[in-house]
Amino acid sequence: MAGAVFLAGLSAMFLFCGYEFIRSPAESIFIDRFGADAKPYAIACVPFMMAAMIYGYGRLLSSVGAKKAMAVSMLGSAAFFLLAWLLLGCAGKWLVFLLLVFKESYVVIISEQYWSFINSVLKDEEGKIFNGPMAGLGALGSLAGGWLLGRYAVGLGTETFVVFSAIAILPAAGLFWIGCNNAGEPRPAADEAGGKKGHLRLSILTENRTVLFIACIIFAAQVVATALDFRFTQLVQDFMPLKDERTAYLGRFWMNVNIFSFSMQFLAAPLLLRYIPRRGILTAIPAVHIVACVLLFINPTLGLASTAFLLFKGMDYSIFRASKETLYIPFSYDTRYRAKQIADAFTYRFAKGVTATCVSGLKAVGSIAPGFYPALGAVFSAVWLALSFPLTAKK
After folding, report:
1. What is the mean pLDDT of residues 99-107?
2. How far is CA 105 from CA 7, 99, 102, 257, 395, in A?
3. Cα–Cα dist 365/88, whole Å
4. Among 29, 119, 126, 238, which is least packed, fewest CB within 10 Å?
5. 393: pLDDT strictly greater than 80
């Protein structure tokens, strides 16, 4: 199993390298065409795309199984980025808008499929050992992608990295296919085969207390993330008016996020998961974000905004993810592959969409004070902290 997990980690390394090639360019191109203040309108559309994509994934999972569903998810995303790159020069602003919405959607759905696979082949104690390094390989790819983007965006141009993101997905798909073959494709029990209990299996959210609390925590956490993201984007626009320089700055920022995340995953996560109770880990993380949001509210600078956002993303990608995923290991195939897409992937972006819709509504009736975003982040960090206690209560 260790070999299959390692191959899945290498696959994730290429996927997340490609994600760095599209994340900052899509943001920078969007800012260039629409401005930072229009970003909430795009994010508000993400839940609709997520709902359609997750439903399509559920149907695909029922008809062809987990391995082929992952291959279609990856290759379909690569095809979209290739087409977008070909059309960016001649298509209207709608394509830029769609590119940002798709960028927000595809990576979450694919990344949850990695964890569905890992949670299916590892036992609980193995997860505490391997989850951190597994996520660390993905962070290594993100780190490399961020470095390449920061180094070459000005010389090659922002749009060039859109096609690079498509190319990077191809080895990711091949490595995952081999890893899945080595471990054996996870199979559902007879009563869950072919989606007999539903292609999305939404009933698990009411049947399984742990999954319900995970969904609620992810919602609260992503409100925090969105609030920090919007404030960070505003300040980046103010201080980085030129597109390619802005892309390079964002590339370096995400590289630093991934250096932090990489360090946490390989050095801290295995030790923390082994020796610190889940409750200690899962309550400490939102406490850190409360402090960061309060400091940003008091002192609204780009440096502090980038630090607060970096802390959130770095811990979200590492210790929070590695700790949370071990909760899924004992559950059924439908919980790991279907309900997980709703609780983790859809809720992840649904929270961003709801936050963006509320922000858009507030902007429609008046201006929003800059301090609104860190204040919102502090409030929902407190909600997150409160929810962590029932999640980690002993059963």
Report:
1. 93
2. 24, 10, 5, 20, 34
3. 33
4. 238
5. no
Alpha-carbon span 271 to 249, nearest angstrom: 33
DSSP state of 199: S
Nearest CA to 22 out of 73, 82, 112 is that of: 82
For residue 178, what pLDDT is reported? 93
Task: DSSP for 247-264, please give it.
Answer: HHHHHHHHHHHHHHHHHI
Residue 184: helix, strand or coil by DSSP?
A: coil
Backbone angles phi, psi at 192, to 5 degrees: -110, -10
Buried b / exposed e over 272-287, threshold 16 CB at 10 Å, is bbeeeebeebbbbbbe
DSSP 8-state class, residue 314? H
* Confidence at residue 395, expressed as pLDDT on a 0 to 100 scale: 46
Structure tokens that stand for 86 in this block: 């070909």
In DSSP notation, 102-134 reads HHHHHHHHHHHHHHHHHHHH--HHHHHHHHHHH
* Token pair of 33 as six digits: 């065409």
Write down the pLDDT at residue 130.
Answer: 62
pLDDT in tens, 323-348: 888 888 888 888 888 888 888 888 98
Q: Measure the CA–CA gap between 167 and 187, rounded to whole angstroms.
A: 30
